[in-house]
Amino acid sequence: MYQLKMAIKSLSKNLLSSLFLLISLCIGFVSFVFIASHVSQEMSYDRDFPQAENIYRIATNIYTSGELKLTKPLCERDMGNELKRNSPEVLESGFFFKPGNLEFKINEQIFKDENVLHASSGILNVFSIEFIYGSRSNALKRPYTVILSESYARKYFGDENPVGKTIFKYPGASYEIEGVYKDLPQKLHFKANMLLSFHDNMRLPPPAMEAWGESAFYTYLKFQANASINGFNKKMNQLALSKKRNLVEGGDIQHTYYLQALTDIHLKSHLKDELAINTRADYLYVLMAISLLILIAIGFNYIHFSHTKAIKDANNWGLRKVVGAKGRSLISQSLLESFLLHLLSLVLAIFICKALSPLAYSNYGLTLDFSEAPLLFWIILLCMILLSTLINGIITGILINRYNSLELLKLKFNPLTSSFSIQKLFVVSQFVIVIAILICIMGINKQLEFLQEKNMGMNLSNKIAVTVPKNMRKSSSRFKNFETFEQELLRHPNVESITQCDKIPGELLAFNFTFKEKGKDKNAKASLMVADVNYLKNFGISLIEGSNFPKNANSINSGCLINEACLSDLGYNHPKDAIGKVLQLKDESMTEGFELEIKGICSNFNFQSLREFPGPTILINWTQEIMWGYYIVKYKTPNIKEEIAHIKKQVETTFPNYPFQYVSLKSFYNRQFIKEFQLIKMLYAFVYLAIVISVINLFTMAWIGSLVRTKEIGVRKINGAKTHEIILMLNKGFVKWVCIAFLIACPVAYYAMNKWLQNFAYKTELSWWIFALAGIIAMGIALLTVSWQSWRAAKRNPVESLRYE
Q1: Average pLDDT score over residue span 611-630
Q2: What positions belong to coiled-coil segments (predicted)?
Q3: 583/479 same-domain check
Q4: Domain limits at 586?
Q5: Does residue 480 share a domain with residue 439?
Q6: pLDDT of the residue at 264
Q7: Same-domain status, 116 and 198
Q8: Does 628 share its domain with 683?
Q9: Angle, alpha carbons 79-80-84 (nearest 5°)
Q10: Are residues 450 and 495 both part of a single domain?
């Protein structure tokens, strides 16, 4: 009890220092709690399903002439069923399939929802989905049936049981509701507000209906507990080979299969056509490492502040030693003060975190939910607090206890004069953190600017994509006066041009067609795009050789355009050599095939992503009779408010009961960098924290330095030393420490940035000025911080300085 009273008295006596210690600790705990909570939640994705550790997804590698061209999280429709039939270790199998249209009508409400999937009945057993209404054993086994999530059913039907009611899906199918399932966990690698049946007697793409046709199914397997999956990949490949033996893709094309653990998908799978944008595990590791470094830096500050407070109260410590206080009691009091400050700062940090939670989510994508935090989070947090309390308390006590009573009474010690000290190590470590984060921020910024400014082979500026019905004939009776629709769009003075297509930049192109030149044996894979005659001009894509699509041609004789990557796969070095050649195309199911004459060669363009080089792409103009889902509208001036109103009116007039939606092409395309943008915003926040911590630390050390060199400063002043000479003397050591930190931080940051840049096909250079600027900023911070304290010490009256001696 006596020690507790003394600790409280010491903290209240040095109120300002205690307040700084409290603020410093709060900063560290707030950053650590936010990051640790976010990381633990990200790492807990897909773990709430029963037996989640036994569930796997099948992924496919596609090779052309022995070279890996594509990896996707999809396989053929019957792969899962066959594995379940032939493998006793597989308990359940099921698949998802993406719908072609996502526009729906419930009662009089028309909406579009991207979180809707076709699903086999087996998927309900794989994920043990629980039902509120209807029967899980009978669900999704009949054509044109649908089951809804609990929240979705409540949204559109209130508390009523919706089983037996219908949902209309554009362009012309009615689905009967046969069940309502409990809302799935939030932390999943997919979202499913509704699940539609997938049946042979439905109007679905013919290639997808083939048992061993198109690789378009997200297939999941649930294994028996403790089942060994060693060698299962080989088993899958042998099965596929035996089933697809008659579906000859061509000797140059090969599919291989492997399993992905369900619990690894969110952090480790970044394949084309994922069901959602997953989180990069390396980004989480970066954030966690930085939050730990911030916490360590806070510990440095704690020790400095405590040390400073002890120096300020050196006479009291000296007297206590004179009257017989043992070293253990000094350390005990220091440890008790540390415990009280840590406890109070933790309580404050939790309240601050709760208050800042909405801001952290909206600005940085950081989620904080203590109610859902796993046990591991609380164990780590508790261990970090106890460790910080012990280390900071004990080290502070040891630093003071090492001086004898005479040194403490007469302040005859200088903790900064030795060639090496813990204080110097702390300062160097803090500035290593600051400089490294600054280099990473500038490096990431430079790469993102490089990608956004890079010539991607197509111009997305001043363009919006307007959604229209898909896979419907333009002559459909559902449309009103379609023949005037395009003319009415162009009538607005701000509309420069329009073009039709089936995909917009940033979406995944269907990479499921094998092509070869007629009369030759070499096969390759290509993406297929539907585009009209205005496409190249509207997007600024260069036509290298040949001609564009014929203006008045029908879909049969309009031929095709190919890009340079496709030209290379055909084996031609000169574009003119390929003009007039005929391509034979077949889909993966080998049920659909057609021939197209090459009309022209266009330049490569990065349609899907700037993380990789453009792949082979074939453009076809089949827009004469069919709607393909998008109209691209190019406008003249940035102010498009009136233009949007005009387009909306035309869409609603021509396509009654169809939801009007549009996106900016540039914004949509840049969604691929959303994780990088969030990361850089968080790094900015961390560097601000690191700078504040370093400034406080340096200021404390400068104060200690001037305090213990009081006599030396006074003597130098009496002997004629100028103010700037005193400032230079006091600053010299700090400059040296920042230089050492710079030399350590540069190779660390260079290695980290090089590893990160490997994720991109197009990379910027890590220019020398990035490292130099980070060093200059760090040096400026250090000099501005210590110079103020040095100036105060240098201006002090030497008589007053020598009074301490």
Answers
A1: 86
A2: none
A3: yes
A4: 463-637
A5: no
A6: 92
A7: yes
A8: no
A9: 120
A10: no
